[in-house]
Amino acid sequence: MSTKLTIIGGGVSGLAAGIYAQMSGLESEIFEGHSVIGGQCTSWKRRGFHIDNCVHWMTGTSPNKEIYQVWKDVGVIGDGCPMIAHEYFLQVDIDGVKGHAWRDLDRMEAELLTIAPEDKKVIHDLIKAIRNFRNIELPALKPKEQMTFMDNMRLLWKMRKAIPVAVKYGKMTIGDLAQMFQSPVIRQIIHNYVPETYFAISTLYMYAMFSAGNADLPLGGSDSITLRMRDRYLQLGGKISTKKKATSIDIEGSRCRRVNFEDGTNVEVEDLICATDISVTFKLIGEQYIDKHFKFCYDNPEKFPVFSNLNIYYAVDQPTNDIPTMEIFNCEPYTVGGREVKTVIVNNFADQPNFAPEGKGIIEVLVVQYDNQYDYWDRLYADREAYRAEKERVAQEVLTRLERHYPQYTGKLTVLESVTPKSFNRFTGAYKGAYMGFIQTHLVKKETHSGILPGLDNLYLAGQWLQTPGGLPNALVTGRFAVQRLLKRKNLLHLFCTQKT
Predict the structure, then answer these.
(1) What is the side-by-side strand order in the sheet with 27-31?
(2) 107: helix, coil or strand?
(3) Under 8 Å CB-to-CB from 113, ≥6 apart: which residues?
(4) Higher pLDDT pick, 408 / 439
(5) Which of 15, 32, 123, 339 is the most exposed place for a label (fewest CB within 10 A)?
């Protein structure tokens, strides 16, 4: 059996789709618009430093979870693929009082009780909720519509302890949950680096996965993910063409017939997976194909908001082993995109070898940006000098706060790079610069997209926008699901992964 599959987009979802296509006996080729593969799971070099603009932790590192098998299939997890298991997720420092989200939940509870004995009951409830939420499972082996009654029963049984937690906290935002605590340190641990409008259970999920050993960090960061996936795909006989930016898709009747590229070439299509940002997909096929699901999401931003980051990278003229892996500290307010910011979120890469030259370090500061702030950066980009000046102003404002908090770095910090929401949009096509999908809020029930658009018989979708809240795990599994849906439609599902090598 030989079916030709064209895949647009060489990010995690496109690579996953290609790998599972090859494993199932399909002939496939990935077309990537950029000069390198990876999509938003990306990194690059700047003045001898390695800038990782994606992965801070990766869901799926525990063998007890379904998604572990998927990461293993695509070559990211397994022998020779080392992981970094941090002792704590983050440290919070509010006016010199420090608290941690420890991997050891007993240790975390004891520390929080020492910090805020007045919050004893809600601390106990929080730790209990995190512990029970470790039973949550991201279905990763079959798309929802292909799961049998017994599949669903097994899933519910696995998650039986997590379901009451989801019910209890399911209508809360992170802001709601944080306000249950009197301690500003614990409030910040609840907020971490996620917008306060986000589902409260996302914080519980994050700490639950971390404490369960299901959210470790690949040694080598983003490159270790995308390069292993690339090598796995090529080993299976797949083909990758870079610098092939798709500009349109010709549709005849109910079938996609060809993909047209910016360089003037095109490719005839038998079956097609679009693994691009979903907004890019609709530009390629035409907005008339936006279905009810996505129309509702786009038309109701208060129910399906998006967010991004301003990521600022600093070269440090000494090693950074003396600061936490991730730390959030409060500071003198500064403004970014018209919003006042009162904290600095620092990500330290000291445990990643070769990210900085010998005797030096590199740190990243994350500044959360909402969709209206994307509009700010988008407008500012029209005046490149003003755009560059504003990036430099913010970077210097943050630099002064870093030096106050880390006096040992005074005079030793240099701005390497500032990545705005507009940067995410320019280089990856990300809708409003979002590096995650739509934020799941308490205002609507959780839904997943079918991965198929009405009226198109040979087009399949893959990518983080199909399942809230997006991110690497959803990008990964939707690549797998796209191939399963293709084979199901062709009555060839029995061939899925029959040619593992």
Answers:
(1) 239-241, 27-31, 4-8, 271-274, 459-461
(2) helix
(3) 119, 120, 123
(4) 408
(5) 339
Tens digits of residue pLDDT in 113-134: 999 999 999 999 999 999 999 9
Q: Residue 150 has what pLDDT?
A: 94
Q: Which residues contact 474 (CB under 8 A, 6 or more apart)?
A: 138, 437, 464, 466, 467, 468
Instruction: For residue 366, give the nearest of 311, 420, 415 by alpha carbon.
Output: 311
Are 313 and 364 in contact, with CB atoms under 8 Å apart? yes
Q: C-alpha distances in angstroms, 385 versus 61, 223, 390?
A: 44, 32, 9
Angle subtended at Cα 325 by Cα 321 and Cα 329, rounded to the nearest 5 degrees: 105
Please state the rounded mean pLDDT for residues 203-231: 94
With a CB cutoff of 8 Å and minimum separation 6, the contacts of 316 are 356, 360, 361, 362, 363, 409, 412, 413
Positive or negative CA dihedral for 168, 172, 173, 175? Answer: negative
**Checking phi first, is residue 214 left (phi over 0); if not, alpha (psi -120 to 50) or beta?**
alpha
Structure token pair of residue 416: 């390497």
Q: Are 11 and 39 in contact (CB under 8 A)?
A: yes
Tell me whether the omega of the peptide bond preceding residue 469 falls within 30 degrees of 0, making it cis.
yes
Task: Report the CATH superfamily, name and number, of domain 4-43+60-64+69-76+219-302+436-495.
Answer: FAD/NAD(P)-binding domain (3.50.50.60)
* Alpha helices, H only, 341-470: 371-380, 384-405, 421-428
Please state the pTM of the whole predicted model. 0.94
Q: What percent of the chain has pLDDT over 90?
A: 85
Instruction: Report pLDDT for 14.
Output: 98
For residues 498 and 6, which has the higher predicted lDDT (pLDDT)?
A: 6
For the chain, how are helix, strand and coil distributed in percent, rounded to 5?
Answer: 40, 25, 35
What is the total residue count of the chain? 501
Distance in angstroms (rounded) separating the CA atoms of residues 493 and 413: 55
H or E segment to which residue 194 belongs: none
Q: Tokens in use for 364?
A: 């990243």
